[in-house]
Amino acid sequence: MLTRIDHIGIACRDLEATVDFYSRTYGFEVFHTEVNQEQGVREAMLRINGTDDGGSSYLQLLEPIRDDSAVAKWLAKNGEGVHHIAFGTADVDGDAAAIRDKGVRVLYDEPRRGSMDSRITFLHPKDCHGVLTELVTSAEAQGEPH
Ligand code: CMX
Ligand code: CO
Fold first, then answer.
1. pTM of the model
2. Which of 2, 11, 32, 128 has the most CB atoms around it within 10 Å of its CB?
3. Catalytic-role residue among 39, 60, 63, 83
4. What pLDDT, in 10s, does the model give residues 48-93?
C-alpha cells in the first residue's frame, strides 16, 4: 500500500546552488547527500516533514553526473524543474507487481538501490498521465511486516 509522498525529485544543473536556494528561501536543511552511480546523479535529500506511518517526506535535488543519464536527458529537453514524484510503501515488490498487473509499465524487473539504502522502482511516465512515478521502500521500512 502506498502510504505517503516519500519525495519529489527535482532536476538541477548545479546542486550546490540549488541547495542554497532551498536553504535561503525556505530554511530547508540537507539531511543526506550521495552519489548514485547507477542512476547517474549526485543528490541532496532535504527533509520536509515526518509522516504518520513513521517515514518522512523529502525533496530530492538531482544533478546529473553523466550525459547519458535519465536526468541529463530530461534537463536537455525541459530545463530545470520537477522530474518525478515518489510514493512510499512498506512493500515495493508487492506494490510494483500489483501495478504491473494493471497494465502500467514498471521499468525494473527487481527494485534497485535508491537514496539512503532504500529500494526503488519506476513507472513509465507515458502510462501515468505524463508523471514519472517512483515507488520507494525506505531502509527503515525494509523488514517490517506489510
Ligand atoms: N517525466 C515525464 N515524462 C518524461 C520524463 C519525466 N521525468 N522523462 C521522459 N519523459 C517522456 C519524454 O518527454 C518522452 O516523451 P515524448 O515521446 O512525448 O517526447 C518520453 O517520456 C521518452 O523520453 P526520452 O527522453 O526519450 O527518454 P527515455 O525513453 O530514454 O527515458 C525513462 C525515459 C522514463 C524510461 C527514463 O527517464 C528512466 O528510466 N527513468 C527512471 C530512472 C530515473 O529517472 N533516474 C533518476 C532519478 C533517480 C532517483 O530518483 O533516485
Ligand atoms: Co527519486
1. 0.97
2. 11
3. 60
4. 999 998 999 999 999 999 999 999 999 999 999 999 999 999 999 9
Contact 98, 46 (CB under 8 A): no
pLDDT of residue 143: 78
- How far, in Å, CA of 90 to CA of 92, rounded? 6
The torsion region of residue 97 among left (phi > 0), alpha (psi -120 to 50) and beta comes to alpha
- CA of 79 relative to ligand 2 center, distance in Å: 17
**pLDDT of amino acid 109:** 97
Catalytic annotation on 84?
Answer: yes
E strand or H helix at 78: helix 70-78
Give me the domains of the chain, ranges plus CATH numbers.
Answer: 2-137 (3.10.180.10)
Q: Is the CB of 74 under 6 A from ligand 1?
A: yes
Of all ligands present, the nearest one to the C-alpha of 70 is 1
